[in-house]
Specification:
Oligomer: single chain
Mean pLDDT: 86
Low-confidence stretches: 236-242
Structural class: alpha/beta
Order of helices and strands: HEEEEEEEHEHEEEHEHEH
Strand content: 25-35%
Number of strands: 13
Helix content: 10-25%
């Protein structure tokens, strides 16, 4: 059934979501070059137009921080792109609170909700929790775990995360923050777009090169450390425990 793909030199895949105008062109096979390149296009009335800076599509521009949002950096192919994760925590009288997820893996988000609830001291059993990405981007990269947890914690405590903070890292069941691949590219992209404080796993500083120069890296070993650093960044000593 894949005989045609077997004999050709290159196979390209153009995919996207019906609800968004974004289209991703991927090199699935490339006999004489890399097969992990991704190009971004936007479907317009005049056809598809190249998106030179796709990071601008997946985050909101706002003058003041709002609770329940956190920026992270994902990798599409070999391209680093910023994405914003948003969370909403709302009281409910429903005996079975809702858990809504858009743009992320629902089972992984359920795990991150449980981890955040334990580490941050939140009570979410009587609240609806909704988690989504901005711009319709689908995130399957484990490096977005830390930002997802911080967004949930921010929404649960109703305390915003500063606009200059980005978070990168995989979160384990124990609450530890693990390193992720291509960290230099991620940090460089976040720094280029003005994020001056970047929460990242322990050991990140030693692996960076000159492309990430100028970034202020805050290494965190676990989610509790990340929540503490956010509290310190906000400069408030009156924040409730855990955030």
């Amino acid at each position: 059934p894949r005989a045609l793909e077997h004999i050709c030199d290159a196979t390209l895949s153009l995919d996207g979501d019906r609800q968004t105008s974004l289209r991703l062109l991927r090199a699935v096979k490339n006999r004489y070059g890399p097969a992990d390149e991704v190009a971004c296009f936007e479907q317009t009335d005049k056809g598809m137009q190249e998106v030179v800076d796709p990071s601008m599509l997946f985050r909101e521009e706002r003058a003041a921080p709002v609770p329940g949002t956190c920026v992270t950096v994902t990798i599409e192919g070999r391209r680093a792109m910023l994405a914003e994760v948003q969370a909403l925590v709302a009281p409910t009288t429903n005996p079975n609170p809702r858990r809504g997820v858009s743009g992320l893996d629902s089972s992984r988000v359920a795990m991150l909700v449980a981890i955040t609830e334990r580490v941050a001291g939140l009570k979410l059993a009587d609240k609806d929790v909704f988690v989504a990405t901005v711009g319709g981007i689908k995130l399957s990269d484990p490096s977005t775990d830390l930002a997802t947890c911080l967004a949930i914690g921010s929404a649960g405590k109703d305390t915003p995360i500063p606009l200059n903070v980005a978070a990168i890292g995989e979160v384990t069941l124990s609450g530890d923050v693990r390193r992720v691949p291509m960290i230099t590219q991620r940090v460089a992209e976040a720094t280029r777009l003005g994020y001056t404080r970047i929460l990242a796993p322990t050991g990140t500083k030693a692996s960076l090169d000159k492309r990430a120069a100028g970034a202020q890296i805050i290494e965190v070993a676990n989610l509790a450390d990340a929540l503490f650093e956010i509290r310190e960044t906000r400069g408030s000593s009156t924040v409730s425990p855990g955030f």
